[in-house]
Every structure is written in C-alpha cells, then in structure tokens.
Specification:
Elements lengths: L1 H13 L8 E9 L2 H10 L4 H14 L6 E11 L4 E5 L2 E15 L2 E4 L4 E8 L5
Antiparallel strand pairs: 1-2, 1-6, 2-4, 3-4, 4-5, 4-6
Helix pairs in contact: 2-3
Length: about 130
Amino acid sequence: MKFVICLSLLSPLLCVSAQARDIEVGTVLTCDTQRQAERVGTLLHGDAQNVASAVSEVNAEEHSRTACGIVNAAAYVRGTDLATVRAKGETFQIAPILLIGIVEGTDMQSVPQKVSFAVFKIDERMA
C-alpha cells in the first residue's frame, strides 16, 4: 500500500497527462541530471565496454563516482521523452524515470525513490 501511495504522489513529476504508466523492468543507464544523460548519449556507440567508458567519462567530468551509472534489473516508471541525442549513427531518447525497486529473482527490493534521467536507445530503421 505504501508503494502505491508513493507512486501516486510522485507520478505528476513523470508526466503531464493523466494517462497510466507501466512499470518496466530491465537494465537502465541513469544519471542525476538531464544534461548528464544527454552527455552520455553523445559518447555512446555500440558495445558494453563503450557504455562503461562513457559513464566513467561523465562521472569524471562531474567529479562524482555516482552521477551516472547502470542499474541492473531495475523496476521503474518512465516519463515523457525530454530530448533526442544522435551520435555516431545511433539515436537515444532522454527521459525521466522513477526507480521503484531492484528485482532479485522473484522478489523486488525497494529503493529510496527519486527521479533520475535515463538514456534509451531507439531503433530508427524502417521495418
């Protein structure tokens, strides 16, 4: 019940419209600010090693080990896309997310709730 109350109180931060949002689960690259997320997006190109390098570079620029990071098995609610970043032939959407938990097996461990900014790769190929 506490989870539902917290989610309902924080949902206005994630969207302007009154539409319902789904809880998504997966690995997500998050940053403390939109600007940091956009910067990571400009550095990304392809492989996992590059992702770690891009996160490290932004964290070094911010003089913080935790400005950006990768959260595995995250349960989150995604807000409305704020920006599009194109770099090295790839396109990324920047959106606020509300991290609500970490999935461990069949359980979800709650985490302190705060709005972060995530980088989502999008596929612009025509089907």
